[in-house]
C-alpha cells in the first residue's frame, strides 16, 4: 500500500519506538531470569559480629575479580560403585596437608609435589581455635589464609576435600575447639546452646571463605566432611543432623560425608550421608565392613595413616615401608579411593600440640611433641622420602588407565638446609621481672566446689599461668587438693623448690633450704603449663587447665586464700613488650639469673635465608619454648624423642635475627643450629 503523504517520518519514529520498547522488555526479562537463576547469597553475608558492622565477603569478591571461576552443573557424586564428577567416573587419590602447620611460602611447593606423586586431591582440616582465638575475633591472615590456600590448590590443579569440624582431632589442641569453650565440659560436641550456638556463628564466618570456592561455583572444593570421627565419641544423630543443616543452610552444596573407624561407622554416620573409613592396616577387613554397611556407594578410605605421631617421653614412631606398600595395594585393588593421612605433616607451631589420655596409666595426659613429621611421604621439612616414591610407583601400577597421568611431572627441587653454627646468649631476664608485662586474669579464690567466677572461666588458655601470693610462714609443705593441669614449677622467694603434675600434687620443702632467706612474708609462685588439651575421646569433656582445687601450705588447715593469676601465652603483644623491656641483664650478671627465665641471642643470616634446625638437646637446654623473630617454633623438652626444632627460612631475614628462649629449669650459654633434624630414637608402629 502506498504511504500517505506527510506520514513517513512519524511512522518511522513509531516503528523504531516499538522496536526499542520490545528490546527493552526482552533485556529486562533476560536480566530477571539471570538473577533468579543465581544461587541465593549465603546467610553469612547478613551476619553481624561484635563490631556492629557487616563483614565483607572477601572470598566472593576475590574469586570473581580473578575472573577464573566458571559455574559447573554437577560436582562430586557418590552413587553406584564409582565416584563421578560432571557425570564422569573418577578415583580420588588425595593427600592431607594442613595449611596451619606449613608456612604459606611453602604451600605451592608441597602441592606441586603432591601432584607429581600422582594425586588429584588435597585434604585439609580447619582449626577453629586459631581462626577464632577470642569470641567473635577472627583471623584469616598469613598461615591462616584459608582462601589463598584453596586458590593455590585450584591453580595447581588439585580438587579439595574440606573437613571444617568444628571438632577435628588432628593431634591438635582440644581437637581444634577454642580454649575459651573448655568451660562447657560435658556439653562439648552436643546441641546444647552453650556449644552449638558458637559453632553456628563460627560456621557463618568460615563459610564466607568456603561457599564461593565450591566446585559448582567454579572452585576446587568437591566434598565437605560433617564433624570428625563422631562415632568414637557419641552416637547423637541429633547433633550430626544439626551440623548438616547448618552447613546446607549456609550454602554448602557439595557432597557431604562422615569418617570413622570400622567399629563406629554406624554410630558416627547420618542416614543418606556417605560414610568413609579410617585405618592403617587390615584393609580388606575394614573395606568389607564398609561395603556391607553401604553396598551401593563407592568406597573411600578417608584416612590411610601413613605413619604416626609421638608423645613426649616416647620413641619416634615409624611405619615400615613394606607394610605401608602392602596395605596401599590392597586399598587400590579393592577399587577404593584413598586419602593419605598425612601426606605432609608439618609442625605444631606455638602451643597448638594436642594430647591423649592414657587410661592404663590412671588417665594421665600424654602431650604430643612439636614436630608433626608423622613419617609422612613428604617430611616435616619438605623432603621426599622413600614412601613418596613408592606411592608414585604404586598409583601408576594399581589404578585403571587414565586415573594417573602416564607421564607425571617431576617434583620441585627440595631446598637445602643450612647449619648456622652457634650463637652465644647475650641477655637474660628472670620471670619476676616479667610480671609487670603480663596480663592479669583476676583475683580468684581457688575452690573447686564453688561456682567458677562468671560461670564461664576456662582456666588457662595456651602456654602458662603464673599464680603468685605471699604467705606469713616459711613454706615447708605444699599440697593441692585436686589436680594440676598439667605441670607446675613451685618457687619460694624466686627459688625453685619442686615440681607438681597430675600424678604429684604434693611437695615437701627443706626448712633449712640455704637459698630461701629473709623474714616473712614469703613469696610463693606456681608456674603452671598447659601442655596441650586432649584431642580425642571422652577426655575432651574436662579440659580446663591450671590449678583445679585448693592449695594448702604446711598443714591442711592453712589454705592459701587467693592468688594473683597472670597469663604467659607468648602473644605478639607480650613479645613486643618483652623485647623492649629495659631490665634485661648481660655479661656476668646473667650468672645470677634464676630460672624460669628468658634468654636472648642474635645471629646473622648472609644472603637468602635457608631452612635450619635449633638443636636444643645438644645445646643442653632442658625444657621450654623457642621464639625466633617473634615466631613461636614450639616446645622443646630433653625427655625426647624430639631433639631439634624446625626453623623454616620464611621466619628468618637477611641480616640480624633474634632468638628468645624461655627456659623453665636449666639454661645453656649458647644456642646451636644444625642442618639435619633429630627426632630421636625410633620404633616401628603396629608391630
TrEMBL record:
Q: List, for all copies, the residue spans of the domain called Glycoside hydrolase 35 catalytic.
A: 82-397
Organism, by scientific name, is Branchiostoma floridae (Florida lancelet)
PROSITE patterns recorded? GLYCOSYL_HYDROL_F35 (PS01182)
Could you state one GO cellular component term attached to this entry? vacuole
Where does the record place the catalytic residues?
A: 229 (proton donor), 303 (nucleophile)
What GO biological process terms does the UniProt entry carry, in alphabetical order?
galactose catabolic process
Q: Read off the InterPro entries from this record.
A: B-gal_1-like (IPR026283), BetaGal1-like_ABD1 (IPR048912), BetaGal_gal-bd (IPR048913), Galactose-bd-like_sf (IPR008979), GH (IPR017853), Gly_Hdrlase_35_cat (IPR031330), Glyco_hydro_35_CS (IPR019801), Glycoside_Hdrlase_35 (IPR001944)
Keywords of this entry: Glycosidase, Hydrolase, Membrane, Transmembrane, Transmembrane helix
Which protein, by its recorded name, is this?
A: Beta-galactosidase
Q: What class of enzyme is it?
A: hydrolase
Q: Any idea where the Beta-galactosidase 1-like first all-beta domain is?
A: 462-568
Catalysed transformations (reactions):
Hydrolysis of terminal non-reducing beta-D-galactose residues in beta-D-galactosides
Q: Give all residue intervals belonging to the Beta-galactosidase galactose-binding domain.
A: 596-657
Q: Which gene encodes it?
A: LOC118421055
Give the E.C. number(s): 3.2.1.23
Q: Does the keyword Amino-acid biosynthesis apply?
A: no
Amino acid at each position: 500500500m502506498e504511504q500517505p503523504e506527510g506520514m513517513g517520518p512519524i511512522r518511522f519514529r513509531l516503528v523504531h519506538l516499538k522496536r526499542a520498547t520490545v528490546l527493552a522488555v526482552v533485556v529486562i526479562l533476560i536480566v530477571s531470569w539471570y538473577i533468579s537463576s543465581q544461587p541465593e547469597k549465603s546467610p553469612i553475608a547478613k551476619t553481624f559480629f561484635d563490631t556492629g558492622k557487616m563483614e565483607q565477603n572477601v572470598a566472593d569478591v576475590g574469586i570473581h575479580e580473578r575472573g577464573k571461576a566458571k559455574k559447573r552443573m554437577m560436582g562430586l557424586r557418590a552413587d553406584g560403585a564409582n565416584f563421578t564428577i560432571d557425570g564422569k567416573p573418577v578415583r580420588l587419590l588425595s593427600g592431607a596437608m594442613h595449611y596451619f602447620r606449613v608456612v604459606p611460602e611453602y604451600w605451592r611447593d608441597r602441592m606441586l609435589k603432591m601432584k607429581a606423586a600422582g594425586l588429584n586431591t588435597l585434604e585439609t582440616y580447619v582449626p577453629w581455635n586459631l581462626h577464632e582465638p577470642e569470641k567473635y575475633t577472627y583471623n584469616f591472615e598469613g598461615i591462616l589464609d584459608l582462601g589463598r590456600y584453596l586458590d593455590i590448590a585450584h591453580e595447581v590443579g588439585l580438587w579439595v576435600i574440606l573437613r571444617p569440624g568444628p571438632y577435628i582431632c588432628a593431634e591438635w589442641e582440644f581437637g581444634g575447639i577454642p580454649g575459651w569453650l573448655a568451660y562447657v565440659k560435658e556439653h562439648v560436641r552436643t546441641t546444647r546452646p552453650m556449644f552449638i550456638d558458637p559453632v553456628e556463628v563460627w560456621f557463618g564466618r568460615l563459610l564466607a571463605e568456603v561457599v564461593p570456592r565450591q566446585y559448582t561455583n567454579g572452585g576446587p572444593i568437591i566434598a565437605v566432611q560433617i564433624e570428625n570421627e563422631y562415632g568414637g565419641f557419641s552416637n547423637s544423630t541429633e547433633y550430626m543432623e544439626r551440623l548438616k543443616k547448618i552447613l546446607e543452610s549456609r550454602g554448602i552444596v557439595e557432597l557431604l560425608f562422615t569418617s570413622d573407624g570400622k567399629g563406629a561407622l554406624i554410630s558416627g554416620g547420618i542416614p543418606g550421608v556417605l560414610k568413609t573409613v579410617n585405618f592403617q592396616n587390615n584393609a580388606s577387613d575394614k573395606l568389607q565392613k564398609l561395603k556391607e554397611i553401604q553396598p551401593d556407594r563407592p568406597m573411600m578410605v578417608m584416612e590411610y595413616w601413613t605413619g604416626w605421631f609421638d608423645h613426649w617421653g616416647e620413641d619416634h614412631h615409624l611405619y615400615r615401608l613394606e607394610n605401608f606398600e602392602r596395605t596401599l595395594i590392597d586399598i587400590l585393588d579393592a577399587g577404593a579411593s584413598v586419602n593419605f593421612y598425612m601426606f605432609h605433616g608439618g609442625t605444631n607451631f606455638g602451643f597448638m600440640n594436642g594430647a591423649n589420655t592414657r587410661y592404663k596409666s590412671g588417665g594421665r595426659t600424654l602431650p604430643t611433641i612439636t614436630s608433626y613429621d608423622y613419617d609422612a611421604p613428604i617430611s616435616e621439612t619438605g623432603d621426599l622420602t622413600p614412601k613418596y616414591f613408592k606411592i608414585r610407583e604404586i598409583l601408576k601400577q594399581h589404578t585403571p588407565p587414565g586415573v594417573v597421568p602416564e607421564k607425571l611431572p617431576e617434583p620441585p627441587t627440595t631446598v637445602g638446609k643450612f647449619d648456622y653454627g652457634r650463637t652465644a646468649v647475650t641477655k637474660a631476664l628472670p620471670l619476676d621481672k616479667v610480671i609487670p608485662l603480663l596480663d592479669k586474669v583476676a583475683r580468684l579464690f581457688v575452690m573447686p566446689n564453688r561456682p567458677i567466677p562468671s560461670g564461664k572461666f576456662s582456666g588457662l588458655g595456651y602456654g602458662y599461668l603464673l599464680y603468685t601470693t605471699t604467705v606469713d610462714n616459711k613454706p615447708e609443705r605444699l599440697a593441692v587438693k585436686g589436680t594440676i593441669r598439667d605441670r607446675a614449677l613451685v618457687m619460694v622467694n624466686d627459688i625453685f623448690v619442686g615440681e607438681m603434675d597430675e600424678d604429684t600434687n604434693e611437695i615437701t620443702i627443706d626448712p633449712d633450704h640455704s637459698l630461701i632467706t629473709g623474714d616473712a612474708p614469703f613469696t610463693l609462685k606456681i608456674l603452671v603449663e598447659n601442655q596441650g588439651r586432649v584431642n580425642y575421646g571422652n577426655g575432651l569433656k574436662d579440659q580446663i587447665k591450671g590449678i583445679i582445687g585448693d592449695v594448702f601450705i604446711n598443714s591442711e588447715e592453712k589454705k592459701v586464700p587467693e592468688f594473683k593469676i597472670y597469663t604467659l601465652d607468648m602473644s605478639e603483644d607480650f613479645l613486643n613488650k618483652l623485647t623492649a623491656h629495659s631490665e634485661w641483664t648481660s655479661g656476668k650478671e646473667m650468672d645470677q639469673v634464676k630460672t624460669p627465665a628468658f634468654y636472648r641471642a642474635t645471629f646473622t643470616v648472609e644472603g637468602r635465608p635457608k631452612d635450619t634446625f635449633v638443636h636444643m638437646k645438644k645445646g643442653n637446654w632442658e625444657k621450654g619454648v623457642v621464639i625466633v623473630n617473634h615466631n613461636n617454633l614450639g616446645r622443646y623438652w630433653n625427655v625426647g624423642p624430639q631433639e631439634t626444632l624446625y626453623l623454616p627460612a620464611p621466619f628468618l631475614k637477611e641480616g640480624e635475627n633474634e632468638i628468645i628462649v624461655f627456659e623453665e629449669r636449666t639454661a645453656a650459654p649458647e644456642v646451636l643450629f644444625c642442618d639435619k633434624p633429630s627426632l630421636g630414637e625410633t620404633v616401628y608402629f603396629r608391630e
